[in-house]
Specification:
Order of helices and strands: HEEHEEEEH
Number of helices: 3
Shape: globular
Number of strands: 6
Helix content: 10-25%
Largest sheet: 6 strands, antiparallel
Radius of gyration: 16 Å
Distance between the termini: 27 Å
Strand order of the largest sheet: 1-2-4-5-6-3
Strand content: 35-45%
């Protein structure tokens, strides 16, 4: 199995296929198109919204706005990838949303737009991580939040709910 670093291209980026090898998401619910940079404590990833995505048909009718929940989801997916990059046996773990604090939506994200998610790791141990997430369009801050994720044993967690 590839390590996360082996999935990086010569620019240090990870493409969609590589992202799907790291986090358990697929289309149409993958809200990351490309990881631009990844270090132990920061990730920058992007998602291109075209305006043709199905959710725009009903949010808002005749005035498409990217749902705030999906903006936070993109932050969460980037945060998950960052956290997994710090866990040697990350395939044996699930990284789950646990807490969201101080979420702020500064301006609406209107398609077409490339959203840049910048996530900074505040703290991480074997059981949880705290991260600060921001979403930008160009250089404009559109949303921000603090995210806490739980890190659990995948097999044990999933067996509880089968």
């Amino acid at each position: 199995m590839n390590t996360i670093n082996e999935l990086k291209n010569d620019k240090g980026e990870i493409n969609t296929e590589g992202i799907m090898k790291i986090i358990p998401y697929g289309k149409p619910f993958l809200f990351l198109d490309r990881v631009i940079s990844l270090t132990n404590n920061k990730i920058i990833a992007v998602k291109d919204f075209t305006g043709k995505e199905d959710f725009y048909k009903g949010h808002f009718v005749d005035f498409p706005i990217t749902p705030g929940a999906l903006t936070v989801e993109g932050m969460g997916q980037a945060a998950t990838l960052l956290v997994r990059s710090n866990i040697p046996n990350h395939k044996e773990k699930d990284v789950l949303a646990y807490k969201l604090k101080e979420a702020k939506f500064i301006a609406p994200i209107l398609p077409p737009a490339q959203v840049r998610f910048e996530i900074n790791l505040v703290a991480q141990n074997d059981r949880e991580a705290i991260l600060q997430g921001r979403a930008f369009v160009k250089d404009d801050l559109m949303a921000e939040a603090f995210l806490m994720v739980a890190i659990v044993n995948k097999e044990e967690f999933r067996s509880k709910f089968k």
